[in-house]
Amino acid sequence: MYTTANAMSDNLAEDLGFTNDGVNTGILIYHIMFTVFTLPSNAISKAVGAHLWIPILMNSWAIVTWAHALIHDFKGFIIVRVAIAITEAGFIPACLSYMSLWYKTNELATRLAWFWGAQAFASAVSGLISFGVFRMRGIYGLEGWKWLFIIDGVATHIIGLIAFYYLPSSPEGTQGGLRGEDGWFTKRQIRIAVLRITRDDETKKEQDKPITGADVTQALLDSNLWTHLIITFIGMIPTYPIASYLPSMIRDAGFSTTMANLLTAPSHIIGLIASIFVARGSDKYGNVTLFALIGTVWAFLGFVLLEILPDNTGKWQLYGAALFTASSPSWHGMQVAWMSSNIVPIGKRTLALAAVIGAANINGVPGSQIYQIDDAPRYRNGNKINIYLQAVTIVLFLFQRTRYDVTNKWRSYTWNRMNDFEKKAYLDENEKKGNNRLDFRYRL
């Protein structure tokens, strides 16, 4: 997404014979295809192993990325966007499932912040690289943005090939490849690594268990899961227009194309640092909603600032407002970890992880249409929409937190009124109900 945003500022659309509205169409199609392929890709990941599927997807994505250098029109642009969506669809769900093999629930939010933070760092580097790469326009008859895609693709190939020989299947399977014949752990360390995960969440003992029809049914009927999906869908819509158009907004404020791309880098660095600090607070103190609201309120205030600044605002003041808005810390990793800890059994959780990533990308369909060319360069109508969406997200976070709290209190009251015989009988009869059982307590 960020490479495309940088490429847009280097006149990608004009070079291919269409406008930025055509780019919006490409983004829309990308998110539809991404969502469609998320669940089947995650099923493949579970079948072949995430440690193999992740490198396969990385190298496939790399091929499609450097293939941008071969396109010459709108049709070619759409084809590569579809291919990018297919190769990206299963990557994040596979990584989430893979990380759950290594980290406890109260460690996951910080790790996910680093995970998505790495993307932010890559985006910052992309902006810095763009500053120099766009000056390569004309070399071998290629536009500067094509060189950017070529470099991104080749770099990903290198990392993807290394990943084949570096990623272990699990804590028990670290021997071989670039990890060495003895692996990373002793037998005692392996036992500790496995026990600390299963004691934190006993459902992870069934990590290799296939998804069943009962898992699908429970996932479809779980209103808590749907609430998390709605939070993800609505709350992350505003990230797409600001991310996609940030270089163009900075350029239109009065900066050169190369300087505009250079000035996007601080937003990614600030967002990365802030996201990690907020996620660490969530892991340490719990109460995910409180920490998630930091990022939501931050973005809300940013869009309000972009909206109220007058048309004659200086370019540095406008840049400062755009920088503040784009730098809001991400709550996505915390919310995914929160949802994951409250969804059992493991098959249902696997579906939920794929669904939440799908929700985080299908919202790119409406998100790609918020900033329209006839609303440029200040996108005031689009900013109003983003303000409303952030306000709704705040309400939804508070609603879900209150709902979990009330449910826990009701379950404790009901459970404590049962005698030991009734409790045992209940557990025997409802063993497979997962987080719908009376003895299950939601993490707040």
TrEMBL record:
It is found in: Membrane. The keyword ATP-binding does not apply. The keyword Transport applies. Keywords: Membrane, Transmembrane, Transmembrane helix, Transport. It comes from the Eukaryota. The chain crosses the membrane at residues 52-71, 78-101, 113-135, 147-167, 225-246, 258-279, 285-306. This is Major facilitator superfamily (MFS) profile domain-containing protein. It comes from Thamnidium elegans. The lineage of its organism: Eukaryota, Fungi, Fungi incertae sedis, Mucoromycota, Mucoromycotina.
